[in-house]
Amino acid sequence: MSHAILFTGHMIDKSDRPTPRFPASKEAAAASAIRAALRKVMIEAGSDPLKGIAAAACGGDILFHEACRELKIPSELFLGIPVDAFRQTSVAFAGPGWITRYDQLTKALPVHILMPNATADAPDLVWEEANQWMLDTALAGGGTKMTLIALWDGKKGDGLGGAEHMVRVASAHQAMVEIIDVLRL
Predict the structure, then answer these.
(1) Do β-strands 176-181 and 146-152 pair in parallel, antiparallel, or remain unpaired?
(2) What sign for the dihedral angle of Cα 171, 12, 63, 56?
(3) Measured between alpha carbons, how far is 69 from 90 in angstroms, rounded to an integer?
(4) CB 8 within 8 A of CB 148
(5) Angstrom distance (rounded) from CA 110 to CA 78
(6) Structural domains of the chain, count
(7) Of 47, 52, 80, 185, whose CA is between 20 and 30 Å from 116?
(8) pTM here?
(9) In the prediction, which pLDDT does 158 show?
(10) DSSP-assigned letters across all residues of the chain
């Protein structure tokens, strides 16, 4: 049976974010911390095959998938809305470099879409539903066959869904939870 590695984490801060949470200056440190967390999971999972699950927003999600590729861990993209709409809502603001990385991942990895007819104007509820969908997928083998890696500041998010929700639900299912404190990077 495979061991699921679910990732949740902050997006790179928008330029107008009043209180910095994940500024672009922390990208390299975050990438290194995600790789270290994945290596730890690889050791703990032993001979169980691994499967990475995450969305693909600029910031933590993309860094997670890139680290999985580097470490030869198969991963899959779980998007609440279609690829183009997701790019518009969760990637484009961070600039062309992030768009290129996102596009490379959407071409190279399996992509699952929760609401294939949704647009970039989908209600905020879609993000919580997408988180629950990823959690349900990752927990299919039971909490002991899942690790959640969270690049998180330990605070409630800006809207529905988010890292706080994922950490709470994964913990309730006795999944292993690895928190990378973005404020300490």
Answers:
(1) parallel
(2) positive
(3) 21
(4) yes
(5) 9
(6) 1
(7) 52
(8) 0.95
(9) 61
(10) --EEEEEEEPBPPPTT-SS-SS-GGGHHHHHHHHHHHHHHHHHHHTTS-EEEEE---TBHHHHHHHHHHHTT--EEEEESS-HHHHHHHHTGGG-HHHHHHHHHHHHHS-EEES-TT--TT--THHHHHHHHHHHHHHGGG-GGGEEEEEEE-SS--SSSSHHHHHHHHHHHTT-EEEEEEGGG-
User: Among 92, 97, 106, which residue's Cα sits nearest to residue 14?
Assistant: 92
What are the backbone angles phi and psi of residue 119, rounded to the nearest 5°? Answer: -115, 180
Record the tokens describing residue 66, joined without a space: 């890139």
146-152 and 111-113 as β-strands: parallel, antiparallel, unpaired?
unpaired
Q: Which amino acid belongs to residue 141?
A: G
CATH number, domain with residue 80: 3.40.50.450
Question: Distance between CA 164 and CA 167 in Å, rounded?
Answer: 5
> Which amino acid type is present at position 145?
K
For residue range 79-129, list pLDDT tens digits in order. Answer: 999 999 999 999 999 999 999 999 999 999 999 999 999 888 877 788 889
Cα-flanking dihedrals φ and ψ of residue 79, to 5°?
A: -110, 135
Residue 49 identity: P
